[in-house]
């Protein structure tokens, strides 16, 4: 009985795969950072479009709200 030689066209097994290079890992990390900042920016602008911040002036709303506090309201 003869052993079959390993097939060079077969994909590597999970344990034998090479780790990505430092440059590839940095590029992926940078892309994920940019993606996160972009999504956070979209959420920020979406919330700002549907809400308004109003500063309380004077003591007309005491004892609940005090002078200088912010109230967030939906437009």
**Major β-sheet annotation:** 2 strands, antiparallel
Reading the helices and strands in chain order gives HEE
Radius of gyration: 29 Å
Helix percentage = 25-40%
Mean pLDDT: 84
Give the structural class: alpha+beta
- Spatial arrangement of strands, main beta sheet: 1-2
The proportion of residues in beta strands is: 5-15%
Number of strands: 2
Uncertain runs: none
Number of helices: 1
* Distance, first to last CA: 81 Å
- Shape label: rod-shaped
Please tag this protein with its features.
two-stranded antiparallel sheet, 1 helix, single chain, 75 residues, alpha+beta, rod-shaped
Kindly describe this structure.
With 75 residues, the protein is of the alpha+beta class. The protein contains 1 helix and 2 strands; from the N terminus they run H-E-E. The chain has one helix at residues 22-50, and strands spanning 51-55, 70-74. Strands 1-2 form a two-stranded antiparallel ribbon. The protein starts with 21 loop residues before the first helix and ends with a strand. The model has no long low-confidence stretch (mean pLDDT 84).
């Amino acid at each position: 009985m003869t052993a079959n030689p390993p097939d060079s066209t077969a994909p590597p097994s999970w344990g034998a795969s090479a780790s990505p290079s430092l440059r590839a890992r940095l590029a992926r990390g940078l892309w994920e950072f940019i993606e996160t900042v972009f999504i956070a920016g979209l959420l920020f602008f979406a919330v700002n479009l549907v809400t308004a911040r109003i500063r309380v002036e004077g003591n007309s709303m005491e004892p609940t709200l005090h002078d200088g506090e912010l109230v967030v309201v939906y437009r």
